[in-house]
């Protein structure tokens, strides 16, 4: 059943991408249909996560690297479909879905990893920590993608080489607003993740702060994105400069989320 559900997840996301592609090709009436397929894919993806968690007798199925990819893809879809419902752009689905498929397709073949101790899930602080962290990184991922789109469109406008693809994109001001909105969501969610992790750490090892790579990198990431928000709010950085800063900050997210997992960690086993 799990394999069948996963196949349907891939099928609906792929169908949504094809319909988005048709809409970009000059059939704007298909934007709504593409959005429906994306949301159906997300709902099936959500059900798949629940079934996978139940089969593994856990609350969050992240025992292998493949499961981490599947859960992260779901987190990105959740942030876009649910948290960003009011500000999301139809055209963004053309970029979002290939990214989701890039995470999902190889996932079943990545079976290596470290199962988290069952005792972790007995603490609600851990659940708050892990879920908020995934959603925060998902928000930062969306902000980076939007920033890349911003720079690409700005370059196309400057060089006056505007294809049909760029004509379908939202105005630069709306893209910049989307970048700021996703960074703000990620910042708040990461704050919640750090707070939940501190209380969980206190229960596990008797201290609120464990000096290990992922903890230090997370605090640094939080500080960098706080600085990004300050630069934008104070009108010090906007437009292309803001987009470049967000992309640079995302490099730190990648290191925090993936890179530190290969270093010596006490509490953060595996991913």
From TrEMBL:
One of its GO terms (biological process) is cytochrome complex assembly. Residues 67-268 form the Cytochrome c assembly protein domain. One of its GO terms (molecular function) is heme binding. InterPro entries: Cyt_c_assembly, YpjD/HemX. The keyword Nucleotide-binding does not apply. Signal peptide: none annotated. The chain crosses the membrane at residues 6-24, 36-56, 62-84, 91-110, 130-157, 178-200, 215-233, 245-263. The keyword Transmembrane applies. Keywords: Membrane, Transmembrane, Transmembrane helix. This is Cytochrome c assembly protein domain-containing protein. It comes from Candidatus Abzuiibacterium crystallinum.
């Amino acid at each position: 059943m799990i394999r069948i559900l996963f196949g349907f997840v891939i099928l609906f996301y792929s169908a949504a991408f094809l319909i988005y592609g048709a809409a970009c090709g000059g059939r704007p009436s298909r934007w709504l249909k593409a959005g429906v397929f994306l949301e159906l894919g997300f709902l099936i993806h959500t059900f798949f996560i629940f079934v996978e968690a139940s089969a593994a007798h856990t609350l969050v199925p992240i025992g292998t690297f493949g499961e981490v990819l599947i859960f992260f893809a779901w987190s990105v879809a959740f942030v876009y479909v649910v948290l960003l419902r009011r500000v999301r752009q139809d055209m963004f689905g053309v970029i979002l879905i290939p990214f989701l498929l890039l995470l999902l397709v190889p996932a079943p073949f990545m079976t290596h990893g470290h199962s988290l101790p069952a005792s972790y899930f007995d603490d609600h602080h851990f659940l708050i920590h892990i879920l908020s962290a995934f959603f925060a990184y998902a928000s930062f991922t969306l902000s980076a993608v939007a920033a890349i789109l911003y720079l690409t469109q700005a370059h196309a406008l400057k060089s006056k080489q505007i294809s049909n693809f760029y004509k379908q994109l939202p105005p630069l001001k709306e893209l910049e607003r989307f970048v700021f909105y996703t960074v703000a969501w990620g910042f708040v969610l990461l704050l919640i993740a750090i707070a939940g992790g501190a209380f969980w750490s206190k229960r596990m090892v008797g201290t609120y702060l464990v000096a290990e790579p992922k903890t230090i990198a997370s605090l640094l990431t939080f500080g960098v994105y706080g600085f990004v928000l300050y630069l934008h709010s104070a009108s010090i950085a906007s437009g292309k400069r803001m987009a470049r800063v967000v992309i640079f900050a995302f490099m730190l997210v990648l290191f925090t989320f993936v890179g530190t997992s290969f270093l010596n960690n006490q509490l953060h086993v595996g991913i």
